[in-house]
Amino acid sequence: MRTSIYPGSFDPITYGHIDIIDRASKITDKLIVAVLNNDEKKSLFTMEERIEMIKDAVKDYKNVEVESFGGLLVDYVKEKGANIIIRGLRAVTDFEYELQLAQTNRELYKDIDTIFMLTNLQYSYLSSSIVKQVASYKGDISKFVTPFVAKKLGQKYGNIV
Ligand code: ADP
Asked: Could you give the residue numbers annotated as active site?
């Protein structure tokens, strides 16, 4: 059984992330979407909220699970008996950091491989931060996130009662 981990902040999950989840779920037996619990990175949504939004978005996928993790990603990957990390690549700007991360992880745990999935062109501009910015100015975010996430963002920024 091949288990893969898709780690990230998912603050909040966007259609770009969902596209990666959709494609990754087809090349692995089990996919765990792992939400990083990182105090250094100030998030808009709590861990519980981020997990709730991802669970809602992936409810139709039988082989996708959602969990939180803290500490070193490689330790979490080992604990789960997984050996594949999935990451999405949007543009060249993502590449250098991702390369560094993947090589460090492999140095720490040689049985791990990182698989990069190229973003769907349709979502190549999309990031959680951009979505938050648009939502904060009450812009239309329906093309970027699920209706459930749009509602949650609306509540955060006081757009919806
Ligand atoms: P992080 O804080 O680790 O960058 P994110 O939640 O922003 O976490 O992203 C998690 C993963 O999803 C990363 O590999 C990122 O490159 C990828 N990703 C984010 N947005 C998109 C998108 N629009 N298309 C494809 N991949 C994406």
From this structure: 17, 41, 90, 128
- Ligand 1: residue of 18, 85, 90 to mutate (most ligand atoms within 8 A of CB) is 90
- Sequence letter at residue 14: T
- The pTM of the full predicted model, rounded to 2 decimals, is 0.93
Cβ atoms 31, 138 nearer than 8 A = no
Paired with 3 in beta bridges are: 30
Q: Token pair for residue 108? A: 């720490």
Give per-residue pLDDT as tens, 7-59: 999 999 999 999 999 999 999 999 999 999 977 678 999 999 999 999 999 99
Nearest to 153 by CA among 13, 27, 19: 13
Q: Calculate how far, in angstroms, residue 12's C-alpha sits from the geometric centre of ligand 1.
A: 10
